[in-house]
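# step 3/5: fold
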Amino acid sequence: MKKNINFKFWKNKRVFITGHTGFKGSWLTIWLQLMGAEVYGLALKAKGPQNHWELLNLDNGHMYADIRDPEVVAKFIEKIQPHFVFHLAAQSLVHDSYADPLKTWSTNVLGTANLLEACRNIEKLLGVIIVTTDKCYENKGWVWGYRETDALGGVDPYSASKASTELVVSSYKQSFFKDKNAPLIATARAGNVIGGGDWSENRLVPDLVRSIEAGIALEIRSPDATRPWQHVLDCLGGYLCLGSYLIQGKKSVAESFNFGPSVESNKSVSTVLNLFGRYWPSSSWHTVSNTYNTEAQVLHLDSAKAQEKLKWRPVWSLEKSVQETVNWYRSWMESECLESRNQIELYMKDSQD
């Protein structure tokens, strides 16, 4: 991905982000602000004593509210009159979807419908990106990457709700956003994202960081499971690239896009953990019996469409992604130095070289 994001393009754009207090949302907020955008957000208050959003201490127009409240969502968007919307608000954990499936369904499906309904009458709105997931595909255990034309589906409530979200978006596009002046809508499907500032429960990197802090070995259920690992900035770079096309009125890209890593970054959990150990020697792990609800063992994404139509490419290799993730956490844990802005600037430089 060389020179495929016009970083000056977002200056003075009014951008609305749902889920801005989350892992991806907080990184996207600060990145857009660094590029000169006017950013607003709606989300639940970030959980836990440590979270990236609170650490950033950003000054932007935001509201703490539930995406499932249609009146609040509609009034806030009407007030902002955004040029562009990134919809990231979601219940995004497979484990939590088993614990509370109704919350997962209502947040991911009805929350998206609320957002799209609120966007129907926003005069200045030019584009919307609905973020779903690589897990929205009906997983057949293929060793090759899933493409945007493959069947949607899901066994666990999270995956199934995200597949349903894609159907909601398709329905709204065909029913209510067909006029020539209607905002352009696309969905973005990314892989397993890593990076600093993620303290979610039941995710590999945050769990590893907590085990290092506690001085214990991390328990791993499925060390051979393979995932499309990528740094959060590569993922968000794809969203920003797609968004720049939509906001310019490029109707040919108002579709679904995969944003996954290179083939070389599709690695097993054990490979990723061993790579972390190279840069963080105090980390350790061991395998335990898997009695948990099983997830797919193999999951790859084919990002050829984004590469061809958007000229997007991942910038950082898996090793570089792990290295920068370790640098972020170690800098914060050892000296309370926040590396987010520095890493964004480094990424922008690397993407343009």
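# step 4/5: annotate
The first strand starts at residue 14 and ends at 18.
# step 5/5: archive (pending)
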